[in-house]
Structures are given as C-alpha cells and as structure tokens.
Write a structure and sequence with these properties.
Blueprint (H helix, E strand, L loop, with lengths): L6 H38 L6 H9 L14 E10 L4 E10 L7 E10 L10 H18 L10 E5 L1 H4 L3 H17 L9 E3 L2 H15 L12 E5 L3 E6 L4 H6 L5 E6 L2 E11 L3 H9 L11 E4 L7 E6 L2 E7 L7 H12 L15 E5 H8 L9 E4 H13 L1 H4 L6 H16 L6 E4 L2 E2 L2 E2 L2 H11 L2 E2 L1
Parallel strand pairs: 1-4, 4-5, 6-13, 10-12, 13-15
Antiparallel strand pairs: 1-2, 2-3, 6-7, 7-9, 8-9, 8-18, 11-12, 14-15, 16-17
Amino acid sequence: MNLLYPAPLSAALADLGQMVMKMMMFWLLPVWTLLLLSSSASSSSPPSSSAAADFSVRFGHTLPSLSRPANSTQIFYGIMFDAGSTGTRIHVYTFIQREPDGLPVLDNEMFHSMKPGLSAYADMPEIAGHTVRQLLRVAKKTVPPLEWKRTPLVFRATAGLRLLPAAKAHALLEEVQDVFDESPFYVPPDSVRIMNGTSEGILAWVTVNFLTGRLERNTEKTVGILDLGGGSTQITFLPKSKKTIEAAPPDYISRFQMFNCSYQLYTHSYLGNGIKAARLSALGALNADGLEKKLFRSSCLSRSHTAEFSFGGVSYHVSGDISGVRGYKACYQELVKVVKGIIKQPLELRDSSSFYAFSYYYDHAVEAGLIDEQRGGAVKVRDFRKTARQVCNRPARHTQLNQFLCMDLTYITCLLKDGFGFKESTVLQLTKKVRNVETSWALGAAIDHFQKSRIH
C-alpha cells in the first residue's frame, strides 16, 4: 500500500531521514574501524588460544586489563631467558609495584620453551641465535611496544654451557649478545652470561618462597628447594640449626639481602650430577673417546635394549648388559657410585624438613604414575625407591615411553637417600607450577634484577 503525504510533510520526513542516517553513520564508524583493524590483525598473525587475550594483544592499552587493579602504583615488565642443558625457555613477567620497598605483585607470566638446549649448537652458534630470535617473538607479543625500551632483557645459561669448553661457550654467548643488541628491548650491562650454580639455587629458592607467600615480612617459615636438571642438581634451604651452618663447607653458606630482610642459606649446585650427566657417569661415558663406535652397557637397561640418546650435542649408543645381572639391586650399585663421596649430607635433613622438588623430579614422578601431571602432589622418598624397584624388575610393564626410567628413578633414590641423606619418610612436594607460574630460578632472577639484591 502506498501512503501519500502532502508535499511539505514529505520534505520534512525526507530531511528527518537524512539526519537519522548521518547520526547512525557517526556512531557506527568507530565500530566499523575496530572491526576492520581486528580483521587485518587476524590475517597477518596466527590466532591465539583465547579470544579475549588475542583482543588485548591487538589493541594494547586501548582496553584496560581487568586483571590489573585500577589503583596500581606501577606496572613493569621483565624478560628472562633460561638456557638450560636440555632446552631454552623465555619467561615474560608482568609486575605491579605498590610500595617502593615492598614485595612486587606478579600479575602474569608468559612462558615458552624450545628444545634442544643451546649447548647442542656448540659447533653452529648461528642456530642458537635463531632459537633466541624465535623466542623473542613471545616477548614482542606480550610487552606493549611503548614499554619495550625500558623492559630489561636478560639471558642466563646454566649447566649446559658450564660443561662446554670455554671457547665454544663464549661463541654461543656472543651470538646471543648480537641478537639482543638488535632487539628493541633494554639490554642491561652484563645481560648475557653463564650463571654460577650458587645463584641458580638461591634464585630458585626465592621463586618458590615468593610464590608461596613466605617472603613476607615477619615470616619465619620457609621451604627448601630441590632442583634436578640435565647437567646439575641444586639444594637450597634456610637452616634452622647453627650446627648445620658450622658443619657445612664455607662455600655452601651464602648470605644475601632482599626486601629489607637478610638470609643465610645452605646452598650448593653439583655440576655433573644432573639426571642426564648421571646417566653418562654410570655408563662410564663421560669424556670417553671414540663415541661413534663405542657401545655402553648397563644393568639398568633391558638386555634386549639398544638405543641412542643425546646430551649436549653428543650422541651415545647404549645397551643392556647381556652377560651380567640386571634389575634394581644391580642398577642401584651402578648409580650409588655417582653420589657417594660427592653429595654432602646437611645435618638437619634427617629431621622434619619441608622441601619443594621440581624439574626432573617432577617429570619422572609423572612418568612413573606417582603424581598427576597437571596437579603434582606429595611424594615420600620411599615412594621413589618402591617404584624404581618395580620398574627395574619388571621393565616390560613400565618402560615403553622411557627406556631409561629404571636408571633415572634409581638415581633419584640414590641422590635423595645416599646423597642428601633424607629419611625414607620425608615428604617432598612435587610441583611444576605454583599459582600457575613456573617453579624455576628465572622468576627469582627477575626479582633480583629489579630489587638489586646482593648475593655473595
């Protein structure tokens, strides 16, 4: 049906329609612009796992982050590279500082890792540089561009590079330094170096006690840490007894200050006693010549087992002992030699102690079914021994995924009992993350950088 209006009324309605259309265009234009920008960003980069996270990454400070309180004093970022013996990891931290001398609040961690470790590229340092460039993309996507020039970029290598000849380690560090110098982030003096084992243990202790709220003022109860890497292992705790301090070698006691508190820690890093290095020691393969043709045998492996594994860029051929005795007891005798006379026993560990254990302690406990992969859990030292016995005596049931599981669990048992001297009843809290943050020295190192604590 057609409605007819007088000419003046028709003209008025036409003018009104044009006015409404202009107003709609005015209000819809910003929405269309955002949609076009979103579409453009989607076509040039891969989608993220979360639509909300992807949206905030694309628009940076255009939208406020709901996880950050409106009254926060200062938000700052830190980028820490952890170059371990079996992989390289990047940690991008977001902190909130409310009080100048107080504890910062960790708002977020972005984590990514790549394997193998940089030591595998000892003869090809340019590939190590490529690995670092790849990981830097995570930092560029996480830190807002306006913050790049004041966000510190720090690289610390651990046992993987400590075990390399000095010239090869230096070449890798120079390659990393070149990549850092090309980056848009702030590169502090001495930002690329090999970290000593003492600092590694102390900073891992800082991480765990920071995340569990034990570094607050007037907090006396802290937890110790046990870190088992590929090339080295660390133990760090706050002694309760003066006898522990007096009986320890002088270089096992470190004093440092953080957050206006002073700490005196028992800490030591055993280079060559990481899980992969221990395998080589038990096999007699450390510093051996003619590796291309040499076959190393162990009673910890199935008689029919012949395989190859790599560590530090070197491949080793291994096999079960065809003629000898095999099983848990024989394997134990091989592995206990790796710790006896090397690992020292702090006095008070035989008493009630509270320790968090992570890295390969956690990974192999998951493989053995002792803990849930996502949640972690509490495990007694005797649980490692019992499971090692089961795996070694019935390998067909347990070693489908890891042919070295018998050897690795037996080594952990030797390390905890015969090495550090823990009671079989001691309970260890096995964890990979605390409050959804990786339990490693990296967070402690980032906090240490900002707080300028002194470790000596």
